Amino acid sequence: MKNKPNWGVIGLGVMGTGLSRNFAKKGIHLALYNRHIEGVEENIAEKHCQKYPELETALPYEDLSLFIHAVEIPRKILLMLPAGVVIDSVLNQLTPLLSNGDIIIDGGNSHFEDTEKRVIEFAGIGIYFLGMGVSGGEEGALNGPSLMLGGDKHAYSLVSKELEIIAAKNSNGTPCCAYLGSGGAGHFVKMIHNGIEYAEMQLLAEVFELTQADPKHDLISIKKIFSKWQKTSSESYLLKVTLSVLNYTKKGHPFINLIKDEASNKGTGAWATASGAKLGNANSMMAAALYARFTSSDKVTREAMAKHFSKIKTNHAISLDALKKAYDVSRLINHHQGFEMIREASLIFGWKINLSSVALVWSEGCILKSTLMFSLIDVFKSNKKILEFSPFIREINSGMQAWEETLDSGIKHRIPLGCFSSAWNYFLAITQKQSNANLIQAQRDYFGAHGFKRTDIKNEVLHHGPWSSKKN
């Protein structure tokens, strides 16, 4: 076959279709494969080639063997499939058909530990494997996503040109695509992206609910508030999305009021939260956001409980200036926690992730793009943590009273501010020179003889308390 496709895409769901169209618009010749399920998924690849003008030169397949043999060697195969059983099944079918030096790119939301294993397994049979986090949703996939790559560095060099072509470009014109490290580095970074995203969304939800509690603020005024914030350093894609959804109406009434208050999750937030515990990182904000979703989804229980406990009526006014400052500093804490998870994981797994590169990849084309994120590109060039950067230190110090005032407003209106509270408590804990952990260690030693270090003895030897001899 003359002019064989040099890229193949497996899986033509929303993201796979968007990325395929993006590749094709940039002049990259494709082979497309989608499974055949009688009466459910039939001739999907062929229909896509007929539906989208940019895909008219792509080659459609429902036979995996024919698809693989159509792609130029060394093959570049992008998998856009659900994590877990589905991708395992396809990889089992795909592996015998591949040749030495072929490159597989998993662009789904696979768990980073699975990617770590696959990189090693495929290297053993002479095939390159890359895990690629993709952010930006349907619009990003089509017009320029944020791409986070991990796996074999040489393999990345073989695919980077085309990936940088389809990736989003930030305001400096730099592609939001980067090799972040070996193994599962790319998928780990995408997982943390989603964890930070959970907390950013929850903060905005808490702002929305708290503002609504003040009789002075109706939906119109709340939209004006968000619109003003969007023109300041608080600007973000998620704030833009929030403002946009609040503008929709049906028959003159806010459409938001027609949506049942049960938040779902697809698993990456839970993975990020669990990874924080496994790494020993205090990722309290993404955990609070996840638990808020869990609680919201149990609406039957919430409605039953609401009957037993009275709600207070108060004339307490919400300070919008204080709320904005509290929102801004809470976002700093959220980003700090997320990036510190990446820093810690990079050390543990030997990935050598450049945090400035992560901020760059997240500066456009993804859900986390914001004025704050763009500023972090330079912040991390100094290798400083967010809470060590002088402008952010000043911002937090000047916002302390506003933070306290906002939390007080939540208490007075009896509105849960899980993410705001988590940010506040983490900040107090991480800046506390002397903590209460000495009592925890004493308790552990008393009932479990776990031992503790002494402040008056300069070594790392574990000691036991005077209670140890008296218990026997």
What can you tell me about this protein's structure?
It is built from 20 helices and 10 strands. The chain is α/β, with parallel strands linked by helices. It has 3 domains: 177 residues, Rossmann fold (3-Layer(aba) Sandwich), CATH 3.40.50; 189 residues, N-(1-d-carboxylethyl)-l-norvaline Dehydrogenase, domain 2, CATH 1.10.1040; 33 residues, Single alpha-helices involved in coiled-coils or other helix-helix interfaces, CATH 1.20.5. The strands form 2 sheets. An 8-stranded mixed β-sheet has the order 3-2-1-4-5-6-7-8, sandwiched between helices. It has a two-stranded antiparallel sheet with strand order 9-10. Strand 7, helix 7 and strand 8 form a beta-alpha-beta unit. The protein is globular, with a radius of gyration of 25 Å.
Short description:
The chain has 20 helices and ten strands. It has helices spanning 14-25, 44-51, 64-70, 85-94, 112-123, 137-143, 153-166, 185-212, 219-229, 237-246, 268-279, 284-297, 299-306, 320-349, 355-361, 371-379, 390-413, 418-430, 437-448, 467-470; strands at residues 7-10, 30-33, 59-61, 76-79, 103-106, 128-135, 146-151, 177-181, 249-250, 253-254.
